[in-house]
Specification:
Layout (H helix, E strand, L loop, with lengths): L6 E5 L3 H14 L9 E6 L1 H10 L7 E5 L15 H7 L1 E5 L2 E7 L4 E6 L2 E6 L5 E7 L2 E15 L7 H4 L11 E11 L6 E4 L4 E6 L6 E5 L2 E3 L2 E8 L5 E5 L5 H8 L4
Parallel strand pairs: 1-2, 2-3, 3-16
Antiparallel strand pairs: 4-16, 5-6, 5-15, 7-9, 7-13, 8-9, 8-12, 9-10, 10-11, 12-15, 13-14
């Protein structure tokens, strides 16, 4: 990557992130993020996702430094040589998911998700869901706590906790993963082409209410949800060569 003239720096509320923000401000005199050529985020993975959503209309690269609880999407923190690090960083382009969710009131909501779209039961009873892929019903009835669709970037987050597969970044597939599945008992999910359109219909919606979430946007009492990759939207994230995201995704598959 070429050098950046205007560097914007944002930080989470964590004390370590705020201390790093003060240190970097003193050294580099950053520009407001609304006017910057690049946005540097200080915090954990959750804050990086917030930053990507907040500044998505800027169409600039994002570079994270780990000053939070989880740092899979972040580079290591150092106040030294920031401009040089940014100049040699490698770019990873990611496309989010688009969620369209219709609720019991008949309102349709739209949101995007960089990690995953998840449907989760709201009450004590398991959700009942019908799942169709590209217009073909693949499961007439899934009984579970929920289900999710994850991007490759998101495959190491909630999806992994739900025992879904880790997906290499360039694989061109999405993970469809049940959350505490009950029936069918042997169904462990599916891998789908990234162009696939997935539709979930909530069965017995009033008796078994379900909420849908696209990263931080939650819609309650949904009756149907469709998910697709929004290939018209892209985010560029930068990583140090020694902190290569693709290598970390691959390495994660061999962790005990």
């Amino acid at each position: 990557m070429s050098g950046f003239e205007k560097i914007g720096i944002v930080a989470s509320e964590a004390p370590a992130a705020q201390a790093a923000l003060a240190e970097l401000r003193a050294r580099y005199q950053p520009a407001p993020p609304e006017q910057a050529d690049i946005v540097v985020a200080l915090g954990g993975d959750g804050f990086m996702l917030e930053t990507l959503h907040r500044y998505r209309e800027r169409d600039v690269p994002f570079y994270g430094m780990h000053r939070g609880s989880v740092g899979f999407l972040m580079n290591g923190y150092s106040p030294d040589g920031l401009k040089e690090r940014l100049a040699r960083a490698a770019a990873v382009v990611v496309h989010p998911l688009e969620m369209r969710a219709s609720d019991q009131a008949g309102v349709t909501h739209f949101a995007i998700a960089i990690n995953e779209v998840s449907l989760v039961r709201q009450g004590r009873q398991a959700a009942k869901l019908k799942i169709a892929v590209d217009g073909t019903v693949r499961l007439d009835e899934l009984m579970a706590d929920g289900v999710l669709v994850a991007t490759p970037v998101g495959s190491t987050a909630y999806n992994l906790s739900a025992h879904g597969p880790i997906i290499p970044l360039g694989a061109g597939i999405l993970a469809l993963t049940p959350i505490s599945g009950f029936r069918p008992r042997q169904w462990r999910g599916a891998l789908l082409p990234h162009q696939a359109r997935v539709r979930f219909d909530v069965l017995e919606a009033e008796r078994r209410p379900v909420s849908a979430a696209a990263d931080f946007t939650e819609i309650r009492d949904v009756v149907s949800v469709t998910v697709r990759e929004a290939d018209e939207i892209s985010f560029t994230m930068l990583f140090d060569p020694e902190h290569n995201l693709e290598e970390r995704v691959l390495k994660e598959q061999f962790q005990g």
